[in-house]
């Protein structure tokens, strides 16, 4: 990290920026009905206001991580903040849904620039013995965005307008940009990326995510198959010759295990919030606002425990803490089973608490374990690829639930999905424990 750049400013700017990405995702979930009404479109089509953002994140986070290693993480991070602020403002002013959707995708691209560099900048700014705590603070900001998105989004929309959520995002992004000013002086140290490999990755990810989101159609099956084949071709090329991430990372057992564990973690957990929401409203008959309040328990626990998890990752082997976290996730999923029409709210809150503790103990230590296995010059690429595993996992988790809901009754589909998620989380716990292999 360059001289004269305050660690406090780096952490403050990155924490605000890391709040924005999940906030922009989770808040839109409660805005979809209002967006649908405002533009006069169906709910199914308006769901793409969330899907377009996630697709852009997954497709561009790895390329921007590699570009950041080459041209400079501070430059990419600051450009991401500036463009995020501009696109958020334009979204609030968009006159039709087509423009809204295009701007939402562009906002996701900007968010990928932030997500690809924030943790890498924090990791570079702090020494190894303090890195876990700093990453823990940054991770807590992510969970704060997740937990505050739905209640803040709903409150702003009810008191004023859904557009106010994007105006708030624009203001927060601009604030983080002002704090991050000195980061523009940082320059990259890596070599130029393979732009053919970048194009292959972007195309394969977009096809895969679109296909997973449309598995009930022939086009969705074709797109997901093509995307998966292209992604495997890209991975083979990376392992053999490099291009974006490169063999230096992908041949490391510790890094690959941590990245795979992240993919499995989000595959096993992302749609649980959807299941809980459907269960509370569709089975127990609670209101949307009441369900939202109950659902804040899990991310609130994640946010409060993330700094402690980071501290533990500094004092103990991080892969062991991450494996413990994934084991708690498995336990939380197990305690959710079975969901019935007579389930008590107390037992549900207990399950959500265990899940929150598990997520907190997994996320920061797993990130630290992955970055500890990466050369400092590749922190951007390492964090970006880790982020891509997260977003791909989110898509897969949702696809599993969606596919099951097409052929089963609601309760049966939810319980079957939870059983699948339980198996995935157990495998993730094993992979987290194996992250010590190939350690630097």
Please outline the helices and strands.
Layout: H1 7-39, H2 43-46, H3 48-71, H4 73-93, H5 97-115, H6 118-125, H7 128-159, H8 163-179, H9 195-213, H10 218-240, H11 247-250, H12 253-269, H13 272-283, H14 288-295, H15 297-315, H16 318-336, H17 345-372, H18 379-407, H19 410-433
Helix pairs in contact: 1-3, 1-5, 1-6, 1-7, 1-8, 3-4, 3-5, 3-9, 3-18, 4-5, 4-8, 6-7, 6-18, 7-14, 7-15, 7-17, 9-10, 9-18, 12-17, 12-18, 12-19, 13-14, 15-17, 16-17, 16-19, 18-19
How is this structure best described in words?
- It is globular and about 55 Å long.
- The relative contact order is 0.14.
- It contains 19 helices and no strands.
- It has helices spanning 7-39, 43-46, 48-71, 73-93, 97-115, 118-125, 128-159, 163-179, 195-213, 218-240, 247-250, 253-269, 272-283, 288-295, 297-315, 318-336, 345-372, 379-407, 410-433.
- 82% of the residues lie in helices and 0% in strands.
- The mean pLDDT is 79.
Binned strand content: under 5%
Indicate the low-confidence ranges by residue numbers.
none
Output the structural class. mainly alpha
Report the CATH superfamily of the largest domain: MFS general substrate transporter like domains
Order of helices and strands: HHHHHHHHHHHHHHHHHHH
Rg on CA atoms, Å? 20 Å
Overall shape: globular
Mean pLDDT, to the nearest integer, reads: 79
């Amino acid at each position: 990290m360059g001289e004269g750049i305050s660690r406090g400013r780096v952490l403050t700017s990155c924490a605000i920026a890391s709040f924005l990405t999940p906030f922009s995702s989770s808040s839109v979930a409660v805005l979809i009905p209002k967006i649908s009404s405002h533009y006069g479109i169906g709910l199914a089509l308006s769901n793409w206001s969330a899907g377009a953002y996630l697709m852009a994140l997954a497709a561009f986070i790895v390329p921007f991580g590699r570009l950041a290693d080459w041209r400079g993480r501070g430059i990419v991070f600051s450009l991401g903040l500036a463009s995020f602020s501009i696109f958020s403002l334009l979204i609030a002013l968009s006159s039709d849904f087509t423009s809204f959707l295009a701007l939402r995708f562009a906002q996701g691209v900007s968010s990928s620039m932030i997500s690809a560099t924030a943790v890498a900048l924090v990791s570079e700014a702090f020494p190894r013995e303090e890195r876990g705590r700093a990453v823990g603070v940054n991770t807590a900001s992510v969970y704060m965005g997740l937990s505050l998105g739905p209640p803040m989004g709903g409150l702003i929309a009810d008191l004023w307008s859904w557009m106010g959520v994007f105006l708030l995002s624009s203001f927060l992004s601009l604030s983080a940009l002002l704090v991050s000013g000195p980061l523009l002086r940082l320059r990259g140290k890596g070599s130029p990326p393979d732009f053919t490999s970048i194009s292959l990755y972007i195309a394969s990810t977009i096809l895969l995510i679109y296909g997973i989101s449309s598995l009930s159609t022939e086009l969705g099956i074709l797109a997901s198959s093509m995307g998966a084949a292209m992604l495997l071709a890209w991975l083979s090329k990376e392992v053999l010759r490099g291009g974006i991430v490169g063999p230096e990372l992908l041949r490391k057992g510790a890094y690959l295990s941590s990245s795979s564990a992240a993919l499995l973690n989000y595959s096993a957990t992302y749609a649980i919030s959807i299941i809980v929401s459907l269960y509370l409203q569709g089975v127990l008959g609670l209101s949307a606002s009441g369900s939202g309040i109950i659902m804040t328990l899990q991310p609130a626990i994640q946010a409060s425990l993330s700094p402690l998890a980071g501290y533990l990752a500094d004092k103990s082997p991080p892969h062991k803490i991450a494996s413990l976290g994934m084991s708690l996730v498995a336990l939380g999923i197990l305690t959710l089973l079975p969901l019935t029409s007579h389930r008590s709210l107390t037992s549900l809150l207990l399950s959500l608490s265990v899940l929150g503790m598990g997520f907190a103990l997994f996320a920061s230590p797993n990130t630290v374990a992955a970055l500890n296995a990466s050369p400092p010059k590749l922190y951007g690429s390492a964090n970006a690829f880790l982020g891509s595993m997260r977003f791909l996992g989110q898509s897969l988790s949702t696809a599993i639930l969606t596919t099951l809901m097409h052929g089963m009754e609601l309760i049966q589909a939810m319980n079957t999905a939870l059983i699948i998620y339980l198996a995935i989380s157990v495998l993730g716990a094993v992979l987290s424990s194996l992250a010590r292999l190939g350690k630097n």
